[in-house]
Amino acid sequence: MKIRAYDYGLMGERIKQARKSKRYTQAQLAEIIDMSSKNFSQIERGETGI
C-alpha cells in the first residue's frame, strides 16, 4: 500500500485564509476549537498536520 505525502503548508495556508476572512486571531480561534495557540500556529505554518 502506497501512502501519499500531503502538503501541510497548503492546508495551513487555507486555514489561515479562512480564519482571516472571519476576522479571528489565532488565539481566538484556537480557544474556540479547544486547541493551544502554539499548536494552531504550527498547523498554519505547515509544520504539522491536524
Secondary structure elements and pairings:
Layout: H1 8-21, H2 26-32, H3 37-44
Helix pairs in contact: 2-3
What do these coordinates show?
The structure is a single chain. By secondary structure, this protein is mostly helical. The chain has helices spanning 8-21, 26-32, 37-44. Helix 2 (26-32) crosses helix 3.
Average pLDDT rating:
92
Oligomer state equals single chain
- Per DSSP, the total helix count is 3
Rg is: 12 Å
Q: What separation lies between the terminal Cα atoms? A: 22 Å
Residue share in β-strands = under 5%
Q: So what's the overall shape? A: elongated
Q: How many domain units?
A: 1
- Main structural class: mainly alpha
User: Which runs of at least 5 residues are low in confidence (pLDDT < 50)?
Assistant: none
Output the helix-strand order: HHH
Please describe the biggest sheet, giving its number of strands, its sense, and whether it closes into a barrel.
none
Percent of residues in helices: 55-70%
Number of strands: 0
List keywords for this structure.
single chain; elongated; 3 helices; 50 residues; mainly alpha
Summarize the structure in short.
The chain has helices spanning 8-21, 26-32, 37-44. By secondary structure, it is mainly α. The radius of gyration is 12 Å and the shape is elongated.
